[in-house]
């Protein structure tokens, strides 16, 4: 069965999604991940197993969808007064959460989707947040700002790689190096284009 892309639903569909996501989280805490099954989740959510299969296709896709929602930021972005500070707080919180044992599972679930939709949603959210930080930096009069893609490539790509493959190597100093390098290369590009 080919998984269908998960859309951001409204109305009854949103209630079903919320009930199923809540059931997954509650059961994960109470019975453990190894015991999760679609029939058990359906019973806990008050829906039929066919509802879950129709919407998500498999347990793996459901877990990826739950993970993608878990990666949605819950608090407004910190405004430290500088783009460098904003990036350090934002990426630092991501690093801390994803390096934890639950964070490692969320990352594995999000990356485990065959449909790519959960990863697309995560990427889109990160781009939106970076765009907001860049907009605030422009409003403050900061110059030589990088593009969103440069921050994805320079900060998030190495961070996600290390979170996924070598979380024990993560540290604030390494993160600060990536942030400064991404911001410094933007200044170099700016200088090169104006000479």
Describe this structure in words.
The chain has helices at residues 12-30, 38-45, 49-56, 59-70, 83-99, 101-111, 117-140, 148-165, 172-194. The chain is mainly alpha-helical. It has 2 domains: 12-57, Homeodomain-like (Arc Repressor Mutant, subunit A), CATH 1.10.10.60; 83-194, Tetracycline Repressor, domain 2, CATH 1.10.357.10. The protein is elongated. The termini are far apart. Mean pLDDT is 86; it is low at 1-9 and 187-195.
Give keywords.
mainly alpha, Arc Repressor Mutant, subunit A, elongated, Tetracycline Repressor, domain 2, 195 residues, disordered C terminus, disordered N terminus, single chain, 9 helices
Give the termini separation: 57 Å
**The named CATH superfamily of the largest domain:** Tetracycline Repressor, domain 2
DSSP helical segment count: 9
CATH topology (level 3) name of the largest domain: Tetracycline Repressor, domain 2
Query: Secondary-structure element sequence?
Result: HHHHHHHHH
Shape: elongated
User: Main beta sheet, described?
Assistant: none
Looking at the overall shape, the CATH architecture of the largest domain is Orthogonal Bundle
Find the structural class using helix and strand composition. mainly alpha
Helix content: over 70%
Poorly predicted sequence stretches spanning 5 or more consecutive residues: 1-9, 187-195
- What is the residue-mean pLDDT, rounded to a whole number? 86
Q: Mind telling me the C-alpha Rg?
A: 19 Å
CATH class of the largest domain: Mainly Alpha
Q: Quaternary status of these chains?
A: single chain
Q: How much β-strand is present in the residues?
A: under 5%
Number of strands: 0
């Amino acid at each position: 069965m080919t998984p269908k892309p998960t859309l951001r639903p409204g109305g009854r569909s949103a209630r079903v999604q919320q009930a199923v996501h809540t059931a997954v989280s509650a059961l994960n805490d109470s019975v453990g991940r190894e015991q999760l099954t679609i029939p058990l989740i359906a019973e806990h959510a008050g829906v039929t197993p066919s509802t879950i299969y129709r919407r998500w296709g498999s347990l793996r896709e459901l877990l990826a969808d739950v993970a993608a929602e878990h990666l949605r930021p819950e608090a407004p972005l910190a405004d430290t007064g500088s783009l460098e500070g904003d990036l350090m707080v934002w990426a630092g919180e991501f690093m801390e959460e994803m390096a934890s044992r639950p964070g490692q599972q969320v990352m594995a679930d999000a990356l485990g989707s065959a449909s790519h939709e959960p990863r697309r949603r995560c990427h889109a959210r990160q781009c939106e947040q970076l765009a907001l930080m860049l907009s605030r930096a422009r409003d403050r009069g900061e110059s030589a700002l990088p593009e969103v893609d440069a921050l994805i490539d320079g900060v998030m790509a190495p961070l996600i790689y290390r979170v996924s493959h070598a979380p024990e190597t993560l540290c604030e100093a390494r993160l600060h190096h990536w942030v400064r390098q991404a911001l410094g290369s933007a200044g170099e590009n700016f200088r090169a284009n104006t000479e």
